[in-house]
Amino acid sequence: MGLPLRLKPGALSFGGAQPDAARREVITLAWPIAVALLGDTAMGLVDTALVGGLGANALGGVGIAIILTWLNYAIVFGVMRGVKVCSAHALGEAKGAHGLAYARAGGALALVAGAAVFVLARDISWALRALHVDPAMIPHARAFMAARTTLAPLTCLLSALVQWRQGIGDSRTPMRITLSGNLLNAALAWTLIHGHLGLPRLGVAGAGYATAIAEGVNALRLGALWLAAWRARSPDPTMPSLRAALGRVCSVGVPTGLQFGLETLAFTVFTAILGGLGATEVAAHQIALAVIRTSFLPGVAVSESASVLVGRALGRGNPDEADRMARAALRVAITFMAGCGLVFALGGSHIARVFTDDPALVETVRRLLIVAAVFQVLDGASIVLRGALRGARDVRWAAFLGIAAIWTCVPGAAWYFGRVLGWGVVGGWLGFVGETGVGAALLWWRWTRGHWRANAAAPRASAPAW
């Protein structure tokens, strides 16, 4: 029973796809996801830029609050990947309308989780003091995070609905809504931070409210699309109940959510360890991270595309097609990220000078970008294989591997190479090489071994990952 939605050309035509056609499928679905991810990042950059005029303490406080906000949301956003995978499998089974049930389940989870985030974020002074944040920055961080999470249930709902749309092959509608939300966020932040157009001057809280409102509006717009499709659906006795849909979403989403949350926490610990290495080292780390995001986020988009296309292929009962899609996604991601790595290695000094004229800082950023060039290809392979295994509902093993690899390699490298051996932030970044190298090798072994193929052969009621 077909879903009453217009999906984009090219998103569904993957039966019997050859390598070139498979690559086109991956790119067609991935590029709007990449644009949307960059748009999400732009919201944080706009907030940071507009707060800059309020002074260093305000800027630092907002930066810390953004990290802690993401830490709060990471588990929820990971769980919502289950909505995407379940919707993709349903569409492959020619039961696209079942994606509406999985979106409803994700929405129910989102509202509960968002309420918890709202309560936890009312006053994070205790966490800031535990992290030894400069007392002058604490009021700004506390005010921004409280405002930023004012509409946390809608922010979590937005994630569920975005995953649903992507799972049914429509990545362009969330992209357009995200970009329009960016414009709303920028306008609101400009007025609320500084009190323009007769509105109150709220300082850093104004930036938080602006982003919360923009995300809330985006959630309501996607929610209206879901409601219209739900009302237009045809009667279907096989439609999953809310309880069944919740179970299926959680079976994929909970391991992924725990992985996202613990990996984010590991990176937060890594950043805290680097904090004791000096201002130049920390500044170089932040600049290099901003640079490599230009390759990492498109790589993530290809991974999300792989999870949809693999899931849809297995929903059709076609594991060979799933394998072709995964390999096509690997080629796309590795080619793109290797090209970016070459640019980083050859042009690191020129890239660094866009951000700073300090010779010591330029040199440190240059060396970090050389390290990044080494792990770019490994990172591309690792994140795509994770997405492919998630689409195949083979999530627990991949989640355990991801958690073990990042906690072993990343904070450990920052402490041992960075602090004990005195190699600074460059030593800390060597942990990324270890994490991505081990991860890519083991994930490739898992994929080529083919355990996930059982999910295509098993009947829906007894599929192992459900």
Features:
mainly alpha, 2 domains, disordered N terminus, 0% strand
Protein model, in words:
- By secondary structure, this protein is mainly alpha-helical.
- It has two domains: 1-240, no CATH class; 255-466, no CATH class.
- The protein is 79% helix and 0% strand.
- It has 16 helices and no strands.
- It has helices at residues 19-51, 56-79, 81-92, 98-120, 125-130, 138-148, 152-167, 172-194, 204-232, 242-274, 279-315, 319-353, 359-391, 396-420, 424-449, 454-457.
- Helix 3 (81-92) packs parallel to helix 11 (279-315).
- It starts with 18 loop residues before the first helix and ends in a 9-residue tail after the last helix.
- Residues 1-16 and 459-466 have low confidence and may be disordered.
Topology readout:
Elements: H1 19-51, H2 56-79, H3 81-92, H4 98-120, H5 125-130, H6 138-148, H7 152-167, H8 172-194, H9 204-232, H10 242-274, H11 279-315, H12 319-353, H13 359-391, H14 396-420, H15 424-449, H16 454-457
Kindly summarize this structure in a few lines:
The chain is an all-alpha fold and 466 residues long. The protein folds into 2 domains: 1-240, no CATH class; 255-466, no CATH class.
- Percent strand equals under 5%
N- to C-terminal separation? 22 Å
Largest sheet: none
Low-confidence stretches: 1-16, 459-466
Structural class: mainly alpha
Q: What's the overall average pLDDT, rounded?
A: 86
Total tally of structural domains: 2
Instruction: Give the radius of gyration.
Output: 22 Å
| Shape call | globular
Count of DSSP E strands?
0
String of helices and strands:
HHHHHHHHHHHHHHHH
Share of helical residues: over 70%
Count of alpha/pi helices: 16
